[in-house]
Amino acid sequence: MTNTQVTHIQIDNYGPWTVTPEPRREVDLQTLQSRLFADLSQLFGNRDGYVFFSRFDNMIAVSNGLDLDDHRLIQESVGNRYPVTMSLSVATGTSPVQALGDATSQLQEEGSAQDKHRREILKGRTIDDEFRTADDVQIAHFDVNDATGKYTDQLNEFDTFIHIEQGYAELMRYMRQAHDSLCFFVGGDNVIGVCPDLDEADYQDAVDHVHEAVDVDLKVGVGRGRTAQSAGMDAKHALEDCRAAGTDVELLF
Amino acid sequence: MTNTQVTHIQIDNYGPWTVTPEPRREVDLQTLQSRLFADLSQLFGNRDGYVFFSRFDNMIAVSNGLDLDDHRLIQESVGNRYPVTMSLSVATGTSPVQALGDATSQLQEEGSAQDKHRREILKGRTIDDEFRTADDVQIAHFDVNDATGKYTDQLNEFDTFIHIEQGYAELMRYMRQAHDSLCFFVGGDNVIGVCPDLDEADYQDAVDHVHEAVDVDLKVGVGRGRTAQSAGMDAKHALEDCRAAGTDVELLF
Amino acid sequence: MTNTQVTHIQIDNYGPWTVTPEPRREVDLQTLQSRLFADLSQLFGNRDGYVFFSRFDNMIAVSNGLDLDDHRLIQESVGNRYPVTMSLSVATGTSPVQALGDATSQLQEEGSAQDKHRREILKGRTIDDEFRTADDVQIAHFDVNDATGKYTDQLNEFDTFIHIEQGYAELMRYMRQAHDSLCFFVGGDNVIGVCPDLDEADYQDAVDHVHEAVDVDLKVGVGRGRTAQSAGMDAKHALEDCRAAGTDVELLF
Amino acid sequence: MTNTQVTHIQIDNYGPWTVTPEPRREVDLQTLQSRLFADLSQLFGNRDGYVFFSRFDNMIAVSNGLDLDDHRLIQESVGNRYPVTMSLSVATGTSPVQALGDATSQLQEEGSAQDKHRREILKGRTIDDEFRTADDVQIAHFDVNDATGKYTDQLNEFDTFIHIEQGYAELMRYMRQAHDSLCFFVGGDNVIGVCPDLDEADYQDAVDHVHEAVDVDLKVGVGRGRTAQSAGMDAKHALEDCRAAGTDVELLF
Lengths: 253, 253, 253, 253
What we know:
With 253 residues, chain A is α+β, with helices and mostly antiparallel strands. Chain A folds into two domains: 4-131, Alpha-Beta Plaits, CATH 3.30.70; 137-251, Alpha-Beta Plaits (2-Layer Sandwich). Chain A is 45% helix and 23% strand. In chain A, the strands form two sheets. Chain A has a five-stranded mixed sheet with strand order 2-3-1-4-5, sandwiched between helices. Chain A is globular. The first copy, chain A, starts with a strand and ends with a strand. Chains A and B meet through helix 1, helix 2, helix 4, helix 5 and helix 6 of A and helix 2, helix 4, helix 5, helix 6 and strand 7 of B. Chains A, B, C, D: Its EC number is 3.5.4.29.
C-alpha cells in the first residue's frame, strides 16, 4: 500500500501582485517563477522530496520524509529571499489525488488564493517516522518512444511540442480519472507520475489509451520507495530497462 | 505586417547527458533546466526579447532587437556557467510558425539534437535595424475568466491544473493550425501567443473555439511593437482593459 | 569544550579552467562563483551548517550535523549543475584552526589544487551523533559601531570599504594568531568568527586590539550550539543585546 | 585620458531589514546577497559593464556604456524579484575615486542608507555616446605569483587566505591613496583595479610597495577600452603575457 504525502504550495495573492501597481515585466515574472521552483526543487529535493512546477503559482510536492519543521524552514527561507510569500498545506493518503484534495481543502478553508490577508499558512499532518515504509511512494517515469528521431529532428519545434503536449494532456487526464494518479510534464519528452498501488496492467492500459487517443507512443518505468527520490531513481532505472529491452512497461519492485 | 524574429534554442545532446553515466537526480535536472530558462529570460529579456520554456531542452525566443553578436554572447555566457552547451538558430518572417520552421530546419541540417559532435551551432539571419518597424511583433496575452473563483478556490489543485492545461492544449493547437501562431503557457492561468497580423475577429474565433471545444472561457489582450517586450506590455494593458470592461478581446493598437 | 567540524571546499583545477582555451569573461566567472557560493549556503544551511566564501575557489564550512553522505550529495548536486567540480575534506577538533589545518592537509595529500586528474575528492571524518553536544560550536558575530552614521553616510563608498576592510584584515589575523579562530567578512560591516572555547575577556581583548591597531570600533555577540545555525542565531541575538545595552561584548550562554 | 563612469549601488535600508522583526537566518542573507550580486554581474555585464561586490549591501560598478534607462531597467528588475530594493547613483570623471565620491555624495544628499523612506533613488549623469572614447576605461588585473605552489598547496586554507587578504588590503589602500584607483578582490588570488591614466612605472611602484609592505609578490596586466569588458579582457591577456614572459607588469595598449 502506498502512503503518499503531498504538499500543496501556493504563492500568496500572486495574481494581483503581478499587476500592482502596473503589470510587471513578463521576463521578470518568468525569472521569479522559475527560480522559485528551482529553489523549491533543491529545498525539497535535498530532503529526498520531489516538486512539480505545474502552474508555477501553485506547485505540488511529494514530501514523504519532511516533517512540519522542514516545511516551516522552507517557507521561512523563501520569505527571506523573495518579494512574495507562500502557503503550504500537507496531507497524506493511499491515493495521491485524495491526499492532494485534502491538502487543497485545508488551504481553501483559510481563505482565497487572492485574499490579501491570508499569508504564510502552514497546515496539515505529516507521516510519523514509525509509520513510514519502503512502499509509501510509487513513481512512474514516462517518456515518448524515439521522440528525437520521430519529432525533434523532423518537425519544426512547435509541432514537436504540440505532439508532446497532446500526449501529456491526454495522459494526465486519463491517469487522474482512471488511476487516481498525478502526472507532471518535467521537460523534454518526460512525464513523471505519482501513483497509488498500480500494477503492470494499469500502466499498460495507460500507454495503450494514449496511443489510441492521440497516437503518441509512450513507455514507462516504475519504482517504489520510502521517498520520492528513491522511488523516482528506481523508475529511471526501470525506464532504462524498457529502452534496453524494447518493452512498454517495466516495474522495478 | 508583422516580421517576427524567432530563435530556436536547443540544449546540445541533452537527453544522453541526463543518463550518463547513470541517471542523474531528477531534482538537479529540474533545477538546472529552470535556472537555465531563468537566465535566458534575463539574457533575452534585457534586450527586450521574450523566451518561452516550452520543453526546457528546446526553448523558443522572440528575439527582435537582438543581432547575431547578442546571440553569440548569450551562447558563450551559458557555456561558461553550465555543464551543458546550447545551439541557437534564428529566422524571421511574417508568420511566426514559418519563421520557427526555418530556424528548426537550419538546426536539423547541422545534425541530430543527440549528435554528440554537433555543439554550439549559431545560424541564421536577424533583421537589419533599418528594416525594423513598430509593427514587427504582435503579442496576445490570454487568461482564464475568474480562474481563482471558479477553479483555484473550489477544486483540488490537480483538477484546476487539468482545466487550465486542457484549455491550453486546445488553444495552442487551434492557434497554430488556424492562425499560424505560437502559444505558450506561462504560469497561473496565462498563455502568451506570438501571432502574425491577426485582427479582433481572429481572436474572438479562438476564444469561441476553446469555449466550445473544452468549455474553458478565455479573454485576450493584444499589443504590437518593435520588440516582444513592448508588444507584450501593451498586451498586458489590453488584458486589464478586458477585465475592466468585461470584454473578451481588446486590441491596443 | 567546542568540537568544530570544518569542511574545506575546493573547486577542482579552477584557475586553469578560467583561462582555457582563452580567458573567460569576468562577469561570467563572478556569476558562477557567487551562485555556487549561494547554492552551497543553501545546501549546507538547510542542514544547519554555515559556509563562508573566503576566496570563492576555496570555501570553508562549519558542517557540524552533516555526515559524509550529506557531503557526497552536495558534491554530486554541484557536479550535476555546474561546469566545474569540487573536492571536500572534513576534519574536527577543539580548535577550528587545527581542524581546518587537518582538512586542508588531507586534501593536499591527494594532489595539487591545479592537478587536472584530482577531481571530486571526498575525505575525512565527521562527528558521530552520539558524541555531538550543545557546546560543539561557538560563533561570534562582530559588527562596526555606528558604521552607517560614521562611514556609509559620510565618506565615499570606497573609503568606507577601506575602513571596514582594514578592520577585518586586522581582526582576522589577530583572532587566528591569538585565539585560534577563523573570522570571515560576511557583508556590510559584519564579520562572523568560528571560535574555540573563548570567554568574555578574550573577545574584549580582540575588540581592544582592533581599536588600537586600526582605530575601528567593534562590538561582538557570541553564541554556542550544536550546529553553526543555532550558535550563530544566538550570536545575532547577543549582538542585538550589545546594541541595546551599549556594551562591547555579550555572551548568550 | 580616462573617463570612468562609476555607479554606486546601495540596497535600501538593508541593515534594519536583516534584523526585522527578528534576525534573519544568516544562510538566507548570504544567499540573497550573493545572488543579487550575481544578477547585477549579468545585468551590467551584458551591457559590457563590471560590478564589484565590495560590501554586498553597497556595490560599485564601472558602467561606461549604460545610460540612465539601462540603470532604471536594472533597478526595476531587481525590485520585481527581490524582497529589497536598491538605489543607484552615477557619476563620471578622469579619476575613478573622484567619480565614486561624486556618486556617493549624490546618494547621501537624498538621505541616510538607513532612512526607511528613501527608496529606489536614481541619480546622476552618464557619458553621452558622442563623448565616449576607446581610452575611457583602464583596468588592471593583478594576481599573486605562484599562489597555488606557495600557498594553496602548502598552508592551511585560512593561512593562505590571510596572505591573500593582507596583500589585497595593502594594495587597495595604496592604490587608492597613491594612484586614485579602486581595487577589488574578485576571488582566488585575483584583484581587479579601476584606474585613471596610469603608466608602467605606477604599476611597478604598486607591485614593489606591496612586496615591501607585506611580502606578497604580485604581477599585473593592464588594458584600456571603451567599456570595462573590453579593457578588462585586454588586462587578462596582458596578465597571460606576464605569466609567459615572467614579468611584473604588462600593458596592452
